[in-house]
Amino acid sequence: MRRITISLDDDLVRLAEREVRRGRAASVSAWVADAIRAKARARADLVADLEELESREPTPPAIVASMARALGLPRGTILKSMKNRRQRRARRRAA
């Protein structure tokens, strides 16, 4: 485990502390780590869902652009990720 320092809005700090007081998290650090994990999972799930859709029919450019904005990532990163996952899946099927 590694210790880091972060800055949060006061509202987020109060929310995290309230979650700890109510027993929903062991500590503020645990609450923040859970939030980071949840965001990473949500992004991975979204890309997997999009991959599945892409395998049925190509994703229109407007949808890719919308996904990129929602994820805060460049459009090229979304396209590359979808392509890389399709290639890995194809290799697994061939093995």
Briefly characterize the structure.
This protein is mainly α. It contains four helices and no strands.
List the topology elements.
Blueprint: H1 10-21, H2 28-56, H3 61-71, H4 75-94
Detailed description of the structure:
The chain has 95 residues and is mainly α. The protein has helices at 10-21, 28-56, 61-71, 75-94. It has one domain. Helix 2 (28-56) packs across helix 4 and helix 3 packs across helix 4 (75-94). The radius of gyration is 18 Å and the shape is elongated.
Report the end-to-end length measured between terminal Cα atoms: 36 Å
Number of helices: 4
Report the sheet-strand fraction.
Answer: under 5%
The radius of gyration computed from the alpha-carbon positions, rounded to a whole number of angstroms, is: 18 Å
- Structural class call reads mainly alpha
Largest sheet: number of strands, sense, barrel closure: none
Q: Helix amount, in percent?
A: over 70%
Total discrete domains: 1
The tally of beta strands, per DSSP, is: 0
Low-confidence stretches at least 5 residues in length (pLDDT < 50)?
Answer: none
Shape: elongated
- H/E series, N to C? HHHH
Q: What's the average pLDDT?
A: 86
